Amino acid sequence: QDAIDKKEKRSETFKTAVHGLETAPPALKTEELGRRAPQWVRDNLVTMCMRCKEPFNAIVRRRHHCRACGYVVCARCSDYKAELQYDGNHLNRVCLECYVFLTGHMVLKDREGKHKGILEKGAAEVSGRSLFCSSLQLLDKNGKGGTRGWFVIPQDDPLVLYIYAAPQDVRAHTSIPLLGYQVRDLAQGDSRHLFQLAQSGQVYTFVADSEELKRRWMRAMARSAAGITHPDEEEEEEEE
C-alpha cells in the first residue's frame, strides 16, 4: 500500500499540488481548431502575449483571446478574422497562427526569421518535462521584497533555473546558471522557509511555501549545481 501511495503521489503533476496554483485548460488538437470551442487560458496565468511574447500593460498592450485556440494574445497578434464552424461559420477574432491554418492565407510577419532566444521556452511546455517546478519567491538584496513567480529546471537544460512571471507564460524573464553554485539552508524566519544559492559573492535567496517544498528544491538545485543531469536514482527506484 505504501508503494501504491508513493506511485500515485508521484504520478500527479507537481504544480497541482502547490497551494493555490491554477493550471491551463487542455489545448485543442490542430484538426479541432474552429470546429470546437476552446477553453480560454485565464488572464492571470500569463503576463505576456502567448504569440509574440511581448509583455502586457494596461495602456498599449491589452489582453485578448483567440476564439479558435483560446490563447491570450495582444491586439496586434489577434487582429485577424476567420469563420469558426462551432459558431455557425461567423467571423471571429483569431490569432495569426490560427488565421493562417483556418483560411490558408499567408501573412508576412515582421518577426519572421528571428532566432528563438534562450529565454523563449514556454513555461507549460518545460514544466511538463522538468526535473522540478513550482512557485517560489526570489528575494531582493535587502531581503524585504522580491519576485514571486514560476521556477523550472527543465530536463533538456538541467543546469539552468528558468524564472517565469506566471505558469503559462511563453517566455522566461530571466534564468540562473546553476553549475558551481552552493545550496545553503537558512533558519526559518518570520515563518518563511528560506534557502540560498551562492557563488563568488553572488547570492540568491528563495522563499518556499513549505518546508517540504524547500527541501525538494534544495536537493534539485544541489544536483544541478554538481552537474548531475540524470533523474534522481531514488525516484527511478520508486517508479520501478
What does this structure look like?
Pfam families: FYVE, PH. Residues 43-103 form the FYVE-type domain. It is found in: Cytoplasm, Cytoskeleton. It is built from 5 helices and 11 strands; from the N terminus they run H-E-E-E-E-H-H-E-E-E-E-E-E-E-H-H. With 240 residues, the protein is an alpha+beta fold. It folds into 2 domains: 7-103, 2-Layer Sandwich (Herpes Virus-1); 123-226, Pleckstrin-homology domain (PH domain)/Phosphotyrosine-binding domain (PTB) (PH-domain like, Roll). The strands form 3 sheets. It has a 7-stranded antiparallel β-sheet. A two-stranded antiparallel ribbon has the order 1-2. A two-stranded antiparallel sheet has the order 3-4. Residues 12-23, 110-116 and 233-240 have low confidence and may be disordered.
Keywords, separated by commas or semicolons:
single chain, 240 residues, alpha+beta, Herpes Virus-1, PH-domain like, 2 domains, seven-stranded antiparallel beta sheet, two-stranded antiparallel sheet, 5 helices, 11 strands, elongated, disordered C terminus
Largest sheet: 7 strands, antiparallel
Residues in helix, % = 10-25%
**Assembly form of the protein:** single chain
Mean pLDDT: 79
SSE topology string? HEEEEHHEEEEEEEHH
What global shape is seen?
elongated
Radius of gyration: 20 Å
Largest sheet, spatial ordering of strands: 8-7-6-5-11-10-9
**What is the terminal-to-terminal distance?**
15 Å
- Which architecture of the largest domain would the CATH scheme give at its second level? Roll
Count of distinct strands: 11
> How many separate domains make up the residues?
2
- Helix run count: 5
Which structural category do the helix and sheet elements fall into? Answer: alpha+beta
CATH homologous superfamily assignment of the largest domain: Pleckstrin-homology domain (PH domain)/Phosphotyrosine-binding domain (PTB)
CATH top level label of the largest domain: Mainly Beta
Unreliable residue stretches: 12-23, 110-116, 233-240
Share of residues in strands: 25-35%
